[in-house]
Specification:
Length: 325
């Protein structure tokens, strides 16, 4: 006999939702930092709403050993970089990802500076202590990006809930960052980041010291999952590299959409933007902005890159260790 299922997420009720006081709507219906809570809201997993039939999506996997988890992280990091190359996110030696080690949360894995994203393998990653920047594992044949370390280490210190950080200088991201403005809720997908995008109002130059990293961490705040850095680029965070990378691509594509919409409106004054209403944006966020859902969203691109790379991307990952601490 067929059984019915009712989602625990209630359909949006505008008056009740807004009266709950869990967010402060931006006057232009754009994403804007809300009052700072102690940490990000823990959302309920709604993956059962996303798939039907056998072998339903399960979200973030678990592993029997720290080493197996570590190998999974490094393989997915490499796949994300290869996807970044495919998407055109390269800009010389700029761009970096960090992920906390599965066993040692005071250490992060980062990509080596100067290796093309499209050639990145799991065995290329470098492990550093968050507090000191000392290399404590992984590949020791290349250095890491020092400005990247200053940014990532300060965010990891300020946000223990953050396990992965993505930052790159994309074309659309840099273009929209020049305005120092938030993104409007123009389409369904950007609701994954509803009320979770911080906007920087100061350009601090190339990051050469911990102080600028601390400033960027303060811009991100206690709950935001993304930041638009003035005259600089984009940054996203997540509980997995999969989540952070999917949000990064979403943020970049949404910058491009916003730029196109603004250009269309400028060319035809009769065109008026229509926003996703706040109550619907919040409804969408609470369903699709959850870590397991976002992990699942990232898998098609990650699996594609691993398949296209062949065995090369995986070679040597079993030897990637953290020094005895």
């Amino acid at each position: 006999m067929a059984t019915s299922y009712t989602s625990p997420i209630l359909a949006p009720q505008p008056a009740a939702t807004k009266a709950a006081g869990s967010f402060v709507p931006h006057p232009t219906q754009a994403t804007a930092p809300r009052s700072e809570p102690d940490g990000p809201e823990e959302l309920e997993c709604q993956l059962q709403e996303l798939s039907m039939g056998p072998n339903p999506l399960t979200g973030v996997p678990t592993f029997p050993t720290h080493q197996e988890h570590r190998e999974h992280i490094l393989l997915h990091m490499a796949a994300v970089f290869r996807n970044w190359a495919r998407m055109g996110y390269t800009e010389g030696i700029s761009g970096h990802i960090s992920v906390r080690d599965s066993e040692h949360p005071d250490c992060i894995w980062m990509n080596p500076i100067g290796k093309h994203f499209g050639l990145m393998n799991a065995s290329d990653m470098v492990c550093l202590e968050i507090d000191t920047g000392r290399i404590v594992g992984g590949n020791r044949t290349r250095p890491v990006n020092a400005p990247g370390y200053h940014i990532h280490s300060q965010i990891h210190k300020a946000r223990p809930d953050v396990h992965a950080i993505c930052h790159a200088h994309t074309i659309a991201g840099r273009a929209w960052s020049a305005f120092g403005k938030p993104l409007d809720m123009l389409h369904q997908d950007i609701c994954d980041l509803y009320n979770s995008i911080a906007v920087d109002s100061t350009y601090g130059g190339i990051v050469t010291a911990a102080e600028e990293g601390q400033r960027i961490a303060s811009v991100l705040g206690k709950h935001s999952k993304a930041a638009i850095l003035l005259n600089h680029g984009l940054l996203t965070v997540g509980s997995t590299v999969d989540e952070a990378s999917f949000l990064f691509g979403l943020l970049d594509r949404s910058c491009e959409i916003q730029l196109r919409v603004e250009a269309a409106c400028a060319g035809n004054p009769e065109l008026k933007k229509k926003f996703v209403p706040d109550e619907m944006a919040l409804f969408n966020f609470r369903m699709a902005g959850e870590k397991n859902w976002l992990y699942a969203e990232a898998q098609p691109d990650i699996e594609y890159e691993i398949e296209m790379a062949g065995e090369k991307i995986k070679q040597g990952v079993g030897k990637m260790k953290v020094d005895q601490k």
